[in-house]
């Protein structure tokens, strides 16, 4: 532990002794890249994301109900060839917290910020949810 503290002290001394290239202007604390230098990609899920709240299941339902719904959606999308268009993603709390249901938000390019927030019974509303997802295909 002593050696570790000695190394830290030595490192701090070296840092503090370095002459500033321009003493009037402090070094920025964050990277000041321009916005255009951030790389972008075109995702495979062009039609949208299906966000499934995992917190709903953890607090109100069994986690198997959540996993069953998520896995069922993924399998169904793959089976019908829509997996590349849509992506099912579990997310933390979406702030809706329905009783004995799961919150699902479908985010698509065509929603223009008006993404539908659905309250889904993980067992009885599967087919209805799936048909709703297919309606949002771009």
Into which percentage range does the β-strand content fall? 15-25%
Tally of separate helices: 4
Largest sheet: 4 strands, mixed
- Helix and strand content put the structural class at alpha+beta
* Oligomeric state, counting identical vs distinct chains: single chain
Mean pLDDT: 77
Q: What is the strand tally?
A: 4
Spatial sequence of strands, sheet with the most strands: 2-1-3-4
Rough shape? Answer: elongated
Report the radius of gyration as a whole number of Å: 24 Å
Low-pLDDT regions: none
> N-to-C SSE series?
HEHHEEEH
- Gap between N and C termini: 60 Å
Percent of residues in helices comes to 25-40%
Note down, in words, how this protein is organized.
- With 138 residues, the chain is α+β, with helices and mostly antiparallel strands.
- The protein has helices at residues 2-17, 54-60, 63-79, 126-135, and strands at 48-53, 86-91, 102-107, 117-120.
- A 4-stranded mixed β-sheet has the order 2-1-3-4.
- The radius of gyration is 24 Å and the shape is elongated.
- The mean pLDDT is 77.
């Amino acid at each position: 532990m002593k050696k570790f503290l000695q190394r830290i002290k030595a490192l701090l001394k070296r840092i503090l002794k370095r002459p500033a290239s321009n003493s009037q202007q402090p070094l920025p604390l964050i990277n000041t890249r321009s916005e255009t230098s951030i790389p972008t990609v075109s995702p495979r899920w062009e039609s949208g994301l299906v966000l499934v709240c995992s917190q709903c299941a953890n607090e109100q339902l069994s986690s198997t109900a959540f996993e069953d719904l998520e896995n069922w959606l993924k399998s169904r999308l793959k089976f019908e060839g829509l997996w590349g268009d849509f992506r099912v993603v579990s997310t933390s709390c979406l702030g809706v917290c329905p009783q004995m249901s799961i919150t699902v938000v479908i985010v698509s390019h065509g929603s223009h910020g008006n993404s539908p927030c659905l309250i889904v019974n993980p067992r009885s509303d599967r087919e209805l949810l799936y048909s709703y997802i297919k309606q949002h295909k771009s």
